[in-house]
Amino acid sequence: MKNILNVLKKRNFLSLFTAQFLGAFNDNVFRIFLLSFITYSLSSIENSHKEFVANIAIGLFMLPFFLFSAMAGEIADKYQKPLLIKIIKAGEIFVMALAFVGFASSNVAFLMLVLFLMGTQSAFFGPLKYSILPEILDKKEYILGNGIIEAGTFVSILLGTILGGVFASIYGGGHISIYIIAVVLIVIAGLGFGASYFMKDCSETNDDAKIEYNFIKSTIINMKFAKQSDTIFLTILGISWFWLVGAVLMSKMPSLASDVIGGNAGVFVLLLAIFSLGIGVGSMLCQLVLKGEVSAKYVPLSALLMTLFLFDLSNASFGYRGEAIDKENLKTIFMFLSDFRGFRVCFDLFMLACMGGLFVVPLNTILQAKSKEKDRSKVIATNNIINALFMVVGSIFTVVLSIFHFSIPFVIMVLAAVNLFVSFYICLILPFSLFKIFAKSILKVIYKVEVIGVENYKKYGKSVIIANHQSFLDAILLGAFLPGRPTFAINTYMAEHPFLKPLLKLVDIVPIDPTKPMATKTLVDAVNDGKTVVIFPEGRITTTGALMKIYDGVGMVVDKTKASIIPIRISGAEFSAFARFRKKLDFNPSSKITLTVLPPRKIAIDENVKGKARRLAYKNEIYNIMSSMMFETSNYNMDLFKSLINARNLFGGKYDILEDITRKTVNYDKFVMGSFVLGKQISKECKDEQNIGLMMPNLNVHLILFFGMQAYKKTPAMINFSSGLTNILSMVASAKIKTIYTLRQFVETAKLHEVI
Fold it and tell me: Distance of CA 286 to CAs 24, 103, 172, 273, 318, Å?
């Protein structure tokens, strides 16, 4: 909430937000009133033609985006954006005045012209709205700013939808004059202009920019311009697909409410309100899940979930088949919601829209962040052109299906089927994003993965991540939980492992043979290209839980690239079913996995050190960093007895840990119990003594006594009985020992009577 308030405090953003909010509100009051007016109040058009007219209305509103967006983008790049916004908002007042004339005369053709002019005004406003955001917000505020704009837009759509529906309802009942409606539309347009008036100049003019007034030629130029960057072009296609789905659903909403559900104008307004609210919620959800990161990682999942809810919406709509519709007594909102089918339709619409918001806001942000400042308006304009093209295609699609009398539930099902193919395509071009979401979710549930020090993972120019290698999960763990998309250096043997091979296709890898120094050249090239490379210096998975042999390949990469090193400690994975150390145990310890990211470090080796000596020096430095990492991320302040208890909790009380020369074994439970019993007895007997001597043979009881003293904060002094009486006396005197514990049988067997 604090971040939202900070963004809204910015004068230009608040003015833009208010102008956009009021403009979208006005558009929807007019459009919803117009659609309801055509569907429910206009008697000059036959009922069989009303759906066709509604589709034409949607198409006419979108047509100016296709015709004029290219020119609008060029104008936005050339002149001061705040000034242009003021001019466009002033034009909205004139358009609303024309709307009054159309409604007063019930002239459908004139109203369609007004709708076209509204689309034209929006087409010129669109490139300004999105291209000015990066100029008035910090980069870390892009996601939040776009989310606020989208959420505000759809809240205004919701409110405009409600007011437009209310106007349609009371106008149809003869309880309101068209003059009152016209005054409201004009006043709202005036308030939008007033909000834009407070915007300060914030962008520079570009006198070199040329405006192509031939809209066909400028559209073709802009379409070619967008294809120069695959990222921008694919992002535009994704945004355009969202608007196609939205256009189809919006055009079918009146008929879904009246002809399928059998609802009145209030049901129609309710469906539109739920759809608008869902997109607003999804837009704000982006900030929560992305935390300001400009990323498309949730786009594939959102697309798949959109498909799911589209299919269910279709099935829910099919549930109304065979039900007779009484045109004289249409269902009210209460009657609609009193049926489970109504709740199901509402839920599917809301979740579909929510996933749509989560789908489109990151794409809009990527479009702004990836485009150059001088061309940003042109990119946004190109986006609007292709958006409009897709929406017109969507309108044509619905018109064609209507001509052939396909039912609305069937149309939604066809849309769901096509969306499924689009989702699969998105998953193919963004496999890492989908992998990251599912891998992160599954690993958190199974291993309760925790990441510590993620703030240390920043872009420090060239950087190499080094991590200890504990299991086959290590690369998946780092890929799922680290920000961005790192590149992994994988042992060639590991890269061919049957379990890992299909998973590694989802991430960027560089197979490396640690025994061949020249193989590191590929890694050097990757680091120099700006990729963050993850290397496991051990070259193989640990079999002991501790560090294995460190190879010198990492040092060579760091030496050639002068990259920073980011150490990451993986702990707990050695006990997973995917580790080699785990295979030495006859049970599965319960352990969570922790990733600890340490601050980046630099290695500086004297340039006079050459050849083999230089490689050895880097290898030693890498080993020192790894050893230091293992130490720093361990709880080295923990006492020995606490470590014993932790080990018992990890491995289980029945696990055998001791076996002496007599072949007697002791498990954790017996060991801990014996330590408490003997430690308590010694503590009573030596109440005022701190240092206590132990002269014991190598039997289990020796260690039990040792840990028993640790449990009761006594210091055990280990006395070597074979060092001779003189040395033993010296030890006792130095440690100020008053009491020594030993075994009678040990004294007898070792003939220590004289020493005792």
Answer: 21, 40, 40, 20, 32
Q: How many angstroms separate the CA atoms of 237 and 387, rounded? A: 8
Give the Å distances, CA to CA, from 345 to 210, 270, 350, 428, 534: 49, 11, 9, 31, 47
d(CA 165, CA 200): 36
Structural domains for the chain: 2-198+223-429 (1.20.1250.20), 440-632 (3.40.1130.10), 642-750 (3.40.50.980)
Q: How far apart are CA 369 and CA 547, in angstroms?
A: 42
DSSP 614-671: HHHHHHHHHHHHHHHHHHHTS-TTS-HHHHHHHHHHHH-TT-EEEE-TT--EEEHHHH
End-to-end CA distance of the chain: 75
CA of 77: how far to CAs of 73, 74, 206, 421, 485, in Å?
A: 6, 5, 7, 36, 33
Inter-axis angle of helices 700-711 and 640-651, to 10 degrees?
Answer: 110
User: What gap in Å lies between CA 240 and CA 388, rounded to an integer?
Assistant: 8
* pTM metric for this prediction: 0.69
User: pLDDT per residue over 562-616, tens digit each?
Assistant: 888 999 999 888 888 888 876 666 666 667 899 999 998 888 888 888 888 888 8
Q: What is the dihedral of CA 476, 480, 481, 484, to 10 degrees?
A: 120
Longest dimension (CA), the chain: 125
Please report how the helices 11-36 and 81-105 are oriented relative to each other, as an axis angle in degrees rounded to 10: 20
- Cβ–Cβ under 8 Å, residues 666 and 628: no
Report strand pairing: 691-694 vs 533-535. unpaired
Summarised one tens digit per residue, pLDDT across range 653-673 is: 888 888 888 888 899 999 999
pLDDT for residue 174: 62
- pLDDT attached to residue 556: 83
82 CB contacts (<8 Å, ≥6 apart)?
12, 132, 196, 199, 200, 201, 202, 203
Judge contact between 68 and 116, C-beta under 8 A. no
SS (H, E, C) 49-105: HHHHHHHHHHHHHHHHHHHHHHHHHHHHHHCCHHHHHHHHHHHHHHHHHHHHHHHHH
286-291 long-range contacts (CB < 8 A, ≥24 apart) are: 286/143, 286/146, 286/147, 286/357, 286/358, 286/361, 286/362, 287/3, 287/143, 287/144, 287/147, 289/358, 290/143, 290/362
Under DSSP, the state recorded for 203 is: S
| pLDDT tens, residue by residue, 151-167 | 788 778 778 877 877 77
What's the DSSP call for residue 471? B
User: Is 379:221 a contact under the CB 8 Å cutoff?
Assistant: no
CB 30 within 8 A of CB 116: no
Helix (H) or strand (E) holding 595: strand 594-597
Angle at 591 between CA 585 and CA 597, to 5 degrees: 120
What is the reported pLDDT for 40?
Answer: 59
Alpha-carbon gap, residue 554 to 489, rounded angstroms:
10
- State the amino acid at position 374 in one-letter form: K
- Residue 628: left if φ>0, alpha if ψ -120 to 50, beta else—which one? alpha
Confidence grade of residue 416 (pLDDT, cut at 50, 70, 90)? very high
DSSP string over 134-202: HHHS-GGGHHHHHHHHHHHHHHHHHHHHHHHHHHHHHHHTT-S-HHHHHHHHHHHHHHHHHHHHTPPP-
Tell me, what's the pLDDT at 417? Answer: 93
Helix, coil or strand: residue 487: strand
User: 143 with 293: CB under 8 angstroms?
Assistant: yes
H/E stretch holding 450:
strand 450-452
- Letter for the amino acid at 234? L
Say if CB 640 and CB 667 are below 8 A apart: no
Helix, strand, coil in percent for the chain, rounding step 5 = 65, 5, 25
Which residues have CB under 8 Å from 509's CB, separation 6+? Answer: 475, 487, 488, 489, 490, 495
Q: Is 431 helix (H, G, I), strand (E, B) or coil?
A: helix
DSSP letter for 262, please. -
